[in-house]
Amino acid sequence: MTQARPNQTPLNETRHDHILILDFGSQVTQLIARRLRESGVYCEIWPFNHAPESRIKAYNPKGIILSGGPCSVTEENSPRAPACVFEMNVPVLGICYGQQTMVEQLGGKVEPGDTREFGRAYVDVMAHNALLDGVWDKGAHEQVWMSHGDRVTKIPPGFEIVGKSEGAPFAMIADESRRFYAVQFHPEVMHTPRGGELLKNFTHKVSGCSGDWTMAAFREEAIAKIRAQVGKERVICGLSGGVDSSVTAVLLHEAIGDQLTCIYVDNGLMRAGESQQVVDLFKNHYNIPLIHEDASKRFLSALAGISDPETKRKTIGGLFIDVFEDCAKRVGGAAFLAQGTLYPDVIESVSFTGGPSVTIKSHHNVGGLPEKMNLKLVEPLRELFKDEVRVLGVKLGMHPDFVKRHPFPGPGLAIRIPGEITPEKLDILRKVDTVYLDEIRNAGLYDAIWQAFAVLLPVKTVGVMGDGRSYDYACALRAVTSTDGMTADYYPFDHGFLGRVATRIINEVRGINRVTYDITSKPPGTIEWE
Ligand code: XMP
What we know:
Blueprint: E1 18-23, H1 29-38, E2 42-47, H2 53-59, E3 63-66, E4 92-95, H3 97-105, E5 109-125, E6 141-154, E7 160-164, E8 172-175, E9 180-183, H4 195-206, H5 215-230, E10 234-239, H6 243-256, E11 260-266, H7 274-285, E12 290-294, H8 296-303, H9 309-331, E13 334-338, H10 343-346, H11 369-372, E14 376-378, H12 386-395, H13 400-403, H14 423-442, E15 451-465, E16 468-481, E17 489-490, H15 495-508, E18 512-517
Parallel strand pairs: 1-2, 1-3, 3-4, 4-9, 10-11, 10-13, 11-12, 13-14, 16-18
Antiparallel strand pairs: 5-6, 5-7, 7-8, 8-9, 15-16, 16-17
Helix pairs in contact: 5-6, 5-12, 6-12, 8-9, 14-15
Bound molecules: xanthosine-5'-monophosphate.
């Protein structure tokens, strides 16, 4: 996972009809962008406090959305939208905190509510307007998702009430003449079942976006952009076996052909058959020049005796850079390094405190390498969310099963073997993982799960197999659902499935005699065990 490098050029893409989302720090702001993109509308998320009026005006959005956020507009110095938002004669939609600051800034009133509304709620629709067109009728009683303590108590001049809920008498308000709309609930989350349609009405019907943001258009434009950026220079691209780096490589190859060389560093910590798949796909199927560096022995000897998770990560990350650099030198004369950086990696996050956040795990990447080797970066996926990358991959002819692969961490199986890593343990874990994923695919559950994997526990337990006593390793199975890996719920397999998997693992994998299922969500757990 690449980390944000906010010092890079902002995107400020203006080729397509676009919407600006001003972020007030809500946990779900990215979902607004994803819902908009799903309906073919390009949008960018900017922190409310890094959006000078001149930049907003120059961006010239077709509409502006004000997100939710954790603050209270009743507090002194709480965030406000730049005044120009309401003066540019563009439609504005305020969501939750966005509604409240809109009300406050336009002459209404917000007060702390007696009843807080969290989770599912219902709104009574009291009027009709363009936002609701074809979605909710006057008189309807509709499910929404709320998360607020404060509430609007007086609407600004020019506004009318469109809907109310038990805890929010002004759950929906609008001033249609100015095309200002505001809702207390969150239309961007799935628990507002028709929220996506409301957002589509805002972008298409109210703001007049044509929905011209498609992956087919992106592909053509990205190719032209890569050619313009790279010219005749050589590019190297590190493959990890994952979706982002693979789609980056295929897109680049389409744009610049054999000016691209891919580098795949096999660290010996991949799952069964994975390295061969990468070689088959890129070298044999796509005919992309590929350096396949089998560095597994170097990685395993560097990891010998190491049990601490952070030391494992640092060892793997450091060695990866050394090996990658050696391979890159062999390519000779490369001017660019391609990376599969995605939009969530470059969105600037809203910080109210300015303080650093706690590092739970240090994810490794090729950080530092571009400067060290004097390479410029080419990051053709910087505008995209993961689901868009998957669609692009299919457009580029990649197999849907490949682009839907679960994320896999850079340090690989090393962080799924708590304690010391040995070739024997890696071999056992690979076999367990293969059986588990095979059963998940057979049950048709793979796509419903964000990540599924096995963990080899550093514990031996007593069992009875046939007439004899066994004393073998225990393993844990993990499967979670998530939208971005930041939070996750464990997957509720039925017991029949779990029993079947456990039986197969114990029968088929020598060295395991006990199987457990991890039912920890994130937080408080993390997805990986280390
Ligand atoms: P955690 O375990 O932090 O994982 O809940 C969140 C997501 O990040 C992946 N992950 C990593 N990815 N290097 C990576 O490239 C790492 O060191 C690393 N650690 C965790 C994890 O698989 C999940 O998708």
